[in-house]
Amino acid sequence: MRAFGLAWVYLRLGVLNELQYRANFFIAAFQSLLSVALGLVVLALVYSHTTTLNGWTESELLVIVGVQILLGGVIHSTIQPNMQRLVDEVRDGKLDLLLTKPEDAQALVSLREVQIWQAVDVISGAAVVVVGAARIAHGVGVVGAIAFVALLGFGALLLYCFWLILATGSFWVVNMGYLAELFEGIYQTGRWPIGIYPGWLRYSMTYLVPIGFAVTVPAQVLTGRLHWPTVVVALCFGAALTGLTRVFWRVGLRRYSGASA
Amino acid sequence: MPRQEPWLRSMVDFYATMMRTQLLMQFQYRAATYMYTLGMVAEPTIYLVVWSSIARSHGGTVNGLTPQAFAAYYIVWTLVRTMNIVFTPYGWEERIREGQLSAGLLRPLHPIHFDLAMFAGQKLVWILMYLPIAVGLSLVFHPALHPGTVQILVFLVAIWGAYLIRSMNLWILGMVSIWTTRASAIFQTYVLTELLLSGRLVPLTLMPHWAQTLAAWLPFKWTFYFPIEVLVGHMSNLSLVGGLGMQLLWTAIGASVVAGAWRLSVRHYSAVGN
């Protein structure tokens, strides 16, 4: 529970820091608008040549696009800045200072940075989800809405684990400058229903890189195609991944020998 | 013209040395390069999967393009995209913030030559690393790719033409950083326009007609669609040569704008750093 207190303190600090640069909000809002616009244009283009993509209609796919943008906002505001800083500090030998603190090191490296303006994507993504969901005929009940939000949080946890596993790799490979590009590239695959990918790619995107569980499963709730066994599998997988991430982080940390003076 | 030859020779010397150094440096960071490449390959793979899936659900073709044709397009796309990676406005922001530009100004050579030579050297490593990826993608997606000798030769020229055009364009955008610290918003608008009108997102023939007409008047298609089509399409020799001519034209336009804007920007530039 101490982690929550820590998260709250760092969040307040991050907010205070970023409030100094208010103009950045407009830049972030503009960029968010561009990414929504691109998503819509691509959908319009695809559906000008077809009526369904692997059984998904345009409105249904809009929900996926929205979820992907929304989770992208979560990643860019909280997960990615922390992981980027971790990789940089391992390279520069600056992680020593953090390790001397009495708090759990994994909690510290995961919570230090908050970039609130990037969270604009959460709002614009949510707007896209709402528009998409509203256009689908059958209504989404209260249970569905709660399940959707819970699965979104769960998806964010999976993406955090995946990012931390990647970043932990920097204890072995020092030059990880392109890690963000690697993650961004892989994350773009989440903009399409996982079913359109060929088998081997679909499995690796579900279990190796948990994009399928993170993005497609929440969208399935709103589009009424979720099977409850999928949720059970997802939860078991999430628990296993969280444990594995913890173990991997510990092993990596043991390798860290510091490079600072 | 007594100065002509030493100048040319020193330029060739400069480019050769820069490119060799960059090549060796890039080789040392193979893991990082592969990480970047892996992230990059995701983009064309997604497009390929989406459009192949549409083609298959419509009896095998979209606008006459089969899944194998899409495979060829997006596999060649990957190499062209690699050639299109140049110094970005983000790099410019850093360069100005940290005062690196001041050092560049002290040198007798226009700073664009450093960027051109530096990235050209790195390209050689990228091309080498692209080959196994192309083989892997070909085994999975079975591209329909049968270029002739002429096509291959023109392609080898066209990818460097694309490199030059995009270098000029992004240099112009980069110089905006000298005037404002908010250049990234302009850059992202550029990238979005380029994505749609260059053939990066989809082969241009899949775009609505008005967009294709618009693309014909802009430089973007000469950096993506044209080089890819050279290898995968069935262009006549005349249109191959005409395309190279258009690339030359856009490079010349870009270079003149760079020259003019540079003169203005340098006057405006005030040094940061030590």
Can you walk me through this structure?
The complex is a heterodimer of chains A (261) and B (274). With 261 residues, chain A is an all-alpha fold. Chain A contains 11 helices and no strands. In chain A, 74% of the residues lie in helices and 0% in strands. In chain A, helix 2 (23-47) packs across helix 3, helix 3 runs antiparallel to helix 10 and helix 7 runs antiparallel to helix 10. The mean pLDDT of chain A is 87. Chain A has one domain (2-255). Chain B is an all-alpha fold. Helices cover 77% and strands 0% of the residues of chain B. The radius of gyration of chain B is 20 Å and the shape is globular. Chain A binds chain B through residues 23, 27, 30-31, 34, 37-38, 41-42, 45-46, 48-50, 52-54, 173, 175-179, 181-186, 188-189, 191-192, 196-198, 201, and chain B through 29, 31-33, 35-36, 38-43, 45-46, 49-50, 53-54, 57-58, 62-63, 140, 182, 184-185, 188-189, 192, 195-196, 201-202, 206-208.
Compile the SSE list and pairings.
The complex is a heterodimer of chains A (261) and B (274).
Chain A (H helix, E strand, L loop, with lengths): L1 H17 L4 H25 L10 H35 L2 H5 L5 H7 L8 H16 L6 H27 L10 H10 L10 H10 L2 H12 L5 H28 L6
Helix pairs in contact in A: 2-3, 2-6, 3-6, 3-7, 3-8, 3-10, 7-10, 7-11
Chain B lengths: L3 H25 L1 H28 L9 H17 L5 H9 L2 H7 L5 H30 L7 H31 L3 H15 L11 H8 L8 H8 L4 H32 L6
Helix pairs in contact in B: 1-6, 2-3, 3-6, 3-10, 4-7, 7-10, 7-11
